[in-house]
Amino acid sequence: MAASGTLSPKTWMENLDKALEEDNFINRYLDKIEKKTNVKKRYVVLGVAGFLALWLASGYLASFICNIIGFCFPAYKTVKAIESTRKDDDTEWLIYWVVFATFSVAEFFSDILLSWFPFYFLGKCVFLLWCMAPVSWNGSRMIYYKFIRPFILRNEGQIDKVLSHMKGGMQELASQAQEGATEIATDAVADAIKNKDE
Fold first, then answer.
1. Sequential DSSP letters for 158-192
2. Residue 184 CA to chain centroid, in angstroms?
């Protein structure tokens, strides 16, 4: 690793090669492609990544592809983390999902404007990849510890009050709905009995 904390291209390739040696369904599929085409799976992955980058830059189905990239791999790694006995990987993926959810809510309000900018979806995809990257300067950790966590800790009391108020309102609404459903069911049974007797 370089002194500045960034990964050199050589380190990126070494990490990619290590990841491509793991035993999982993606690598088994890549092994089959490598045998059939005689192209190293490293180059297959880099080619697919380049193709996706161009596709995301073109905009066609870019939003869908970007959301798949931001969801599928993290969901898989989250399930693996849940099934493992270690706690640190659970925390890592919980942080990712908090950042992903925060970004999704923020994007909802700005997506209409931002999606008109060239390369928006490519930038979004790079952002999501940075947030899930297994590096010390991971985007999720940086965003969580610099912005989200301080905001939550600073406003925790107010957030708890709002949530408590909302919970009370939802319980009252559910109670009223249950009473209404019971009243409707009672009236329906009474009408059925009345119609049967006539």
1. HHHHHHHHHHHHHHHHHHHHHHHHHHHHHHHHHHH
2. 42
Greatest distance between any 2 Cα atoms in the chain: 91
Residues 39 and 95 grouped into a single domain: no
Angstrom CA distances, 112 to 9, 56, 57, 63, 106, stand at: 35, 17, 17, 12, 11
Rounded CA-CA distance 52/58 in Å is 10
pTM above 0.70, yes or no: no
Residues 129, 190 share a domain: no
Containing structural domain, residue 194: 162-198
Residues 10, 32, single domain; the answer is yes
Instruction: Indicate if the pLDDT at residue 183 is higher than 90.
Output: no
d(CA 111, CA 28): 37
